[in-house]
Known about the structure:
Structural class: alpha+beta
Oligomer: single chain
Number of helices: 7
Largest sheet: 4 strands, antiparallel
Radius of gyration: 22 Å
Strand content: 35-45%
Amino acid sequence: MVLLNELPLEILEKIFAYTDGITLGYLGRASYRFYIVVKSLKCSLTYWRETCLRDIDQDILEDMMMTIIPEPKSYQYWQTLFKSCHRADYVSYCERLKTPLPSKKIGQPIGIKIQGDYAYTIHRAHRIVKWDAIQGVPLQTILTTNTGNLAASILPKLHLIYHDSKHITLVSVANQWIYLNSTENKGKQKCIKAAHNEPISDCSVFGTILVSCSKSHIAVGRCSVNKDDQVYEPLHKLVSIVPLSVCVWDHQVLSAGLDRNLQLWDLDNIPDITVHSYKTVTQISHYVPWIILRNTIKITVFADVPGFSISVNDSEFKHYNTLNVLQASPSRVLLKGNLLVLAMVTGSVYIYYIVKKEDLLELKLELCHAKLSYHGNIISLDIGDDGDGPVVAIVTDKGEAEVVRWIPE
């Protein structure tokens, strides 16, 4: 009988290719021959790509791929995806590092976005600040415009459009205007475009597609952005009954209106964008100021009932009453990759690790993987991955802005 350790290296490589990245690490410690095979596979583009496609749920994988900037052709890209997916499972066993972003001299922050080692905050004076998210030091101030009395109409949302690892365009909204702000334009906005003739109530970005809504309609447009020119052009108007919230993902737009209908719009002919069709997904019994769309995953957060609902693969929406379990209503819900984050009006933040999308229908709210606590209501929230572990960025209505990361011990 031939022992496993005696098989030719070529055969061992084929066998080990069916293991996941965690098991592969253990195999490399078993013997020197195993170590040689593992060392080869760890630098294999094919191995890491096939492992991710095989072991990570497709919807979760596509969501995570939106946040990883390195070129997809490298093995490091797929290795980072795998590590990001499995690292979150051990978040409660890691050291927690908090970095406050002192904004007293800048003005009260109302929105935040995290990307790697940098954070971006948007303030009441419609000022955007780039931070060193590790040291908590402001690096650059982008002054978009002096909005004066319109400052209250600034949405507490900040979107990023990536060109490469260094060049990023920030999208912000105030009143009826869309602002494109380049990090390479010496702190000044390059282009402003009115998408509506009335205040915008919500907006969403996927790639360079930007969708916004006001009380009369939904506007679908495209941002043409590069280092030298940035233009936003609204291409279509979608008629909806007083849309309250909107979310775009891939070729679909999900909207929730005052008539309590969830509508799903199909977009075709990217990049020109044409509206192919739409349908009413379901009629709900509550007002929805916050929605999430991730391929076949839909999440709605209610304004008049303490909780949220989730649908997976066009299933019936399952409602979670957070008041019964967490003693509070959610102010923000975020789904990114395999992490679901609930931010409550009481200042608590709960983080849940999702292996596959069907897990969203079997959530045990009392069994979170990590919890954060703050003094005020969470008004803005984002989550990312810095290569070592998950990173959460929050802003409260008390003016607190903080970045929390988990570092393996």
